[in-house]
Design goal:
The protein is α/β, with parallel strands linked by helices. The protein is about 30% helix and about 25% strand.
Length: about 240
């Protein structure tokens, strides 16, 4: 996405904010589980931060895909500075083909860019065809279950999230995140009803699709995030490509 070419550095810096490191990451990595010896496709990989973490955790093969050439440039620079064997490509995550099957597909903030049911289906189909039978899709997402009144400013976490009214399929959700350094990064997601997610993933062939409530790491004190976690603006997503499919 061209908008991310312009804010690539700021968006990468925002990945180090506390709500990301202490809520987003535990939620995502909790879904992924032990990745040692597993192949992982990172759809909408951004600057590759999570691809690098999974490579460091023992993933046998990592490939990242992003539509933003600016983000992929950052990812490739990090790979050149400290090689981990991660490969990257600039591509629409909804049209990834020819890479072979993966044990895991990770999708951190991919599906919330679908502007309608048809686009969501293309993204889900891409994840499905790139999984081996029995492989799993795990991700984090803008939470489509958020109550309308909870789209708001989070001063303690340096971001604003609000939704276009009236709320309907395709309503724009605008995020403005202020990283500790640099300019704010502002970008749009889109709202699709939770029931549409469930129906689309079932139509594509996924089993066990579910939204997962965000959480802090096991054993960590959730108190600083109690308000953030109540009707949390982000959530996990999990699904499986069935064996024999």
């Amino acid at each position: 996405m061209a908008e991310y070419d312009a804010i690539a550095d700021e968006y990468a810096a925002s990945k180090l904010l506390p709500w990301r490191t202490q809520v987003e990451q535990p939620t995502l990595f909790g879904l992924l589980g032990d990745v040692r010896g597993k192949s992982v496709l990172d759809l909408a990989c951004g600057d590759g931060i999570y691809a690098r973490m999974l490579a460091d955790r023992g993933a046998s093969r990592m490939h990242g895909v992003d539509l933003s050439s600016g983000m992929i440039d950052l990812a490739r620079r990090s790979e050149a500075a400290r090689p981990r064997g991660i490969t990257y490509s600039v591509s629409d995550a909804a049209d990834v083909r020819g890479l072979g099957g993966f044990d895991l597909v990770m999708a951190a903030y991919l599906f919330n860019y679908a502007q309608d049911r048809a686009q969501l289906r293309r993204m889900a189909e891409s994840a499905y065809r790139n999984l081996v039978p029995g492989g799993r899709l795990c991700g984090v997402n803008d939470n489509p279950r958020t109550s309308p009144g909870r789209y708001r400013y989070y001063p303690e976490f340096s971001f604003i999230r609000y939704i276009e009214k009236p709320q309907r399929e395709g309503s724009t959700i605008t995020w403005a995140i202020q990283p500790d350094t640099g300019e704010p990064c502002i970008f749009d997601n889109f709202w699709i009803p939770p029931a549409t997610y469930e129906a689309v993933f079932a139509e594509v062939g996924f089993q066990e699709f579910r939204f997962v409530n965000a959480h802090v790491a096991t054993g960590a004190d959730p108190t600083p995030f109690s308000d953030f976690l109540a009707d949390c603006p982000i959530c996990g997503i999990s699904a499986m490509r069935p064996l024999g499919s």
